[in-house]
């Protein structure tokens, strides 16, 4: 019998990569949670979310960032999937943690709203909400950096949560 | 008492006869709902057992109100001014924080006024079954409307009551919970 909260897949990078994706995600869960331990090989790029290979201007996001001395909020609209999708946060050259919540990801009646928390040690803490204007169930997604690569040993784990 | 397994035919004295031990794990679904046609004024998780350490509500919500509206939370049908909340929000340009005391409910999620755009939220209620502490709530929630509105929100809430939480009501500040709103309650064991 399946559990309520269980791992679906995990990826540990054996070499640097600018993007990590999951495909063929089953629709049998209620929510998905992605937990990633990430570090860049250079810079502080935006981390973007690209879903179901939807390549139209269907992506938007709102971000909140606190650096310890300043708080900012930014918005991205009409982003193309082919341009990487919508920014959901940043990553740095120190190990950070990203947690993404895909609530009710497999419904086919609402647009998809994804919440993200990203911790950037010594740099900032961030949260974001991303909208994908598609009612299709999420069956694949890619997390990718604007520039640079996630370093070796970066990990990405996707969990499924099942409501009774 | 002898028990026979309908699965294997094995006989024994345990209800687990013939079946592998099932461990429900430390994160367990308690109840869930998806709002149907016409919406509902509110939804209540009732008869919540006190056997968990913490609760988590995971939700995709919307009000059918013409404007954007908060989706709020109330415990044990307490409609008194026994709640407080704080919030830290990003609206795409000017982040801000505020709060309120002596409230009749806790702000948790929020709702867009676009048909297909719902707010998403994860609500943690820690030590909900304690009978010696006021109850504290932590929320991550948000919605985005592609340039016409939306917030990313950190919220916290307080219920100034030491009673164990046995029911949770989710109620929009205006309008009804719209069709396709989904709410799921989980119990977390330690």
At CATH level 2, the architecture of chain A is Sandwich
Anisotropy-based shape of chain A: globular
Class by SSE composition of chain B:
mainly beta
Could you say how many structural domains of chain A there are in total? 1
Q: Which percent range fits the helix content of chain B?
A: under 10%
Number of helices of chain A: 0
Read across the widest sheet of chain B, the strand sequence of neighbours is 3-14-5-10-11-12-7-8
Shape of chain B: globular
Question: In order across it, which strands form the biggest sheet of chain A?
Answer: 1-12-3-8-9-10-5-6
Number of helices of chain B: 0
Proportion in β-strands of chain B: over 45%
Question: How is this structure best described in words?
Answer:
The complex is a heterodimer of chains A (164) and B (190). Chain A contains no helices and 12 strands. By secondary structure, chain A is mostly beta strands. In chain A, the strands form 2 sheets. Chain A has an 8-stranded antiparallel beta sheet with strand order 1-12-3-8-9-10-5-6, with no helix packed on it. Chain A has a 4-stranded antiparallel beta sheet with strand order 2-11-4-7, with no helix packed on it. In chain A, strand 5 and strand 6 (71-79) form a beta hairpin. Chain A is globular, with a radius of gyration of 15 Å. Chain A starts with a strand and ends with a strand. With 190 residues, chain B is mainly beta. Chain B has a single domain (23-188), classed as Sandwich (Jelly Rolls). Chain B is 0% helix and 48% strand. Chain B contains no helices and 14 strands. In chain B, strands 3-14-5-10-11-12-7-8 form an 8-stranded antiparallel beta sheet, with no helix packed on it. The model of chain B is unreliable at 1-9 (pLDDT under 50). Classes of the chains: A mainly beta (164), B mainly beta (190). Chains A and B meet through strand 5, strand 6, strand 9 and strand 10 of A and strand 3, strand 5, strand 7, strand 10 and strand 11 of B.
